[in-house]
Design brief:
Blueprint lengths: L7 E3 L6 E3 L18 H15 L5
The structure holds zinc ion.
The site of zinc ion has 8 residues, from α1.
Length: 57
């Protein structure tokens, strides 16, 4: 148990402990949040976009 005042969640991609606000909510009213933080999702989106357009990095 940790003594954190703010609720945090560990990103399953970068494994950082981040506040819940760093995670996008999946559905209204449910406690389900994305397993990945916004940073990881954005990065993956960008990489997928680059791959789809035949570019690396
Ligand atoms: Zn992350």
């Amino acid at each position: 148990m940790t003594m954190t005042a703010e609720h945090t969640k560990t990103c399953s991609h970068c494994t950082r402990d981040l506040p819940l606000s760093a995670f996008a909510r999946r559905r209204r009213g449910a406690e389900t949040r994305q397993a990945w933080c916004r940073d990881c999702i954005n990065q993956t989106r960008r990489e997928a976009y680059a791959r789809a357009h035949g570019r690396t990095a």
